[in-house]
Design a protein that fits this description.
By secondary structure, the protein is an alpha+beta fold. It is built from 17 helices and 24 strands. Strands 1, 2, 3, 5, 13, 14 and 15 form a seven-stranded mixed beta sheet that branches. The protein has a five-stranded mixed beta sheet with strand order 18-19-17-16-22. The chain has a two-stranded antiparallel sheet with strand order 4-7.
Length: about 500
């Protein structure tokens, strides 16, 4: 049976899927892992784990479906990440992860002063934040000079897998556009003056689009994985964009809402929209642009509450549903790992307001769900203010398995969400991109055939006024507590140092 493989390297796990050419899932596999947090604001991972887990997942998938004939391989991963490797493609230090790693504040400030905020936005599309890859490169150069002296190549999870599978040194345009400010978004190429200034010793990866074929599986990679030598491998991209592909939310006017360890939003348009509060990037496909945003915690916050209380998810969800809208008067700011968009504040911290001795674990869990929904609303309103034309919203990710969470998001935002049949996420999107890449002319599959919409979540109009008021309080709570919270964040950094 002809099929494609898709593997995605995520923040808390790697997931793989084997998919028949009609979109039917033949087998799935997962490997859990942890990130390292050696200091407050630092989030790292050993890049060698990405390949090790890829090999283990692929071998499990192939063993589960021995009749499968793998015709293409799709790769995807969290990002933007900064994994630097030497001439022999050995990592010189742990990979620095995306915007949840906030160590590069000094480099952001210095580069912004050197280049000018307006010029950075003109060339790269976005102002510099903890999400940007350029300041993370500068941090390594300044704070880990021994590693920098050995560094020769730049990888992200998808490009690392493509390199190990094919030998190609390539990065997709979407990922490259998040190595701000080193990518010229209008001309879709590396910005040579700034690359030379901040990353001159690093060999530039060639650029391709996510669904382009990066190369073919080498004999060595075939021996390690069991994938036949000569099998096509796509370039791949960052997981949120691959998730958008997996549910068909990558056309102009679409918004993809990804429920995961973090929450991510990607709005697709034809024009380059710029706002300092969000991230402007190249799209996954030629001719598209994205305005993107992300919460630093969502599933990570609910997992923290689960571990803290010792309750299981079904119990917490039942109690949260019983708690009802407003969580018995609680209001929570979900900034437990700083916050990315739209406040762009790495020193933000979690706040729980309104606590009394009468509140329960269910109230806290309900407040956490509402907090992530309020964060989504804050992002959507900021996108629309910047000119984003959002006509259709599609939900994806592990959090879509819980109906209550999605209903809360719709109620808080007033948005209708479409839910497709398969919400396994980026690994499925990577398999689809691989199937498209190897298809004969005129025979490429349609994602609407692979993954049709099966459910629609509609907001309760009776709750609109209530959540309008709560959103106003949410915004004011951040502004009112910000100064004290920043002092506490500084004290935390001192303690961890």
């Amino acid at each position: 049976m002809r099929c494609t493989l898709g593997v995605d390297i995520g923040t808390s796990s790697s997931k793989g899927v084997l998919v028949a050419d009609d979109g039917v899932i033949l087998a799935t596999a997962t490997r859990s892992h942890d990130v390292s947090r050696p200091r407050t604001g630092w989030v790292e991972m050993d890049g060698r784990v990405w390949w090790d887990e890829f090999v283990a997942i692929v071998r499990e998938l192939l063993a589960a479906a021995p009749a499968a004939e793998v015709a293409g391989v799709g790769v995807s991963g969290m990002g933007p990440c900064i994994l630097l490797a030497d001439d022999a493609d050995e990592p010189v230090r742990p990979a620095i992860l995306y915007g949840v790693d906030t160590r590069s504040g000094a480099q952001i400030e210095r580069m912004t002063a050197e280049l000018g905020v307006d010029e950075i936005a003109r060339i790269g599309g976005s102002t510099l934040t903890s999400q940007a890859g350029g300041p993370k490169l500068a941090w390594v150069a300044e704070e880990d000079p021994d590693a920098w002296a050995r560094a020769r190549r730049l990888f992200m999870p998808a490009s690392w897998l493509a390199r190990r599978l094919t030998g190609a040194y390539v990065l997709d345009h979407q990922s490259a556009s998040q190595v701000s400010p080193l990518y010229d978004i209008e001309n879709e190429r590396w910005h040579e003056p700034w690359w030379e200034r901040y990353a001159g010793r690093i060999e530039q990866p060639s650029l391709a689009w996510a669904g382009d074929v990066a190369g073919k599986v080498t004999a060595d990679a075939a021996s390690a994985t069991g994938i036949p030598a000569g099998t096509a491998v796509i370039t791949g991209t960052i997981d949120a964009w691959t998730e958008a592909v997996s549910v068909g939310a990558h056309e102009v006017g679409d918004l993809m809402l990804m429920y995961g360890t973090t929450m991510f939003l990607v709005a697709t348009g034809a024009e380059t929209l710029r706002t300092p509060s969000m991230w402007t990037t190249a799209g996954a496909f030629a001719g598209t642009r994205n305005l993107a945003g992300g919460l630093s915690t969502s599933g990570a916050l609910t997992a923290w509450l689960k571990d803290l209380t010792g309750a299981d998810y079904p119990e917490l969800l039942a109690d949260a549903e019983a708690s009802g809208p407003g969580a018995a008067g609680l209001l929570l700011l979900p900034y437990f790992a700083g916050e990315r968009t739209p406040i762009q504040d790495p020193d933000a911290r979690g706040v729980i307001a309104g606590l009394t001795l009468e509140h329960t674990c269910g109230d806290l869990y309900r407040a956490a769900l509402e907090a992530t929904a309020l964060g989504v609303r804050h992002n959507v309103e900021t996108m629309r203010a910047a000119g984003a034309d959002i006509r259709r919203i599609v939900a994806v990710g592990g959090g879509t398995q819980g109906r209550l969470w999605m209903q809360v998001v719709s109620d808080v935002t007033g948005l209708v969400q479409e839910v497709p049949a398969t919400t396994i996420g980026a690994s499925y999107g990577a398999a689809f991109l691989a199937a498209t890449a190897i298809a004969a002319a005129g025979e490429a599959p349609a994602i609407t055939d692979w993954n049709p919409i099966i459910e629609t979540i509609r907001p309760d109009p009776a709750l609109r006024t209530f959540y309008d008021t709560l959103f106003d309080r949410y915004v004011r709570l951040y502004e009112g507590s910000k100064d004290v919270v920043h002092e506490l964040a500084a004290a935390q950094r001192g303690a961890s140092a």
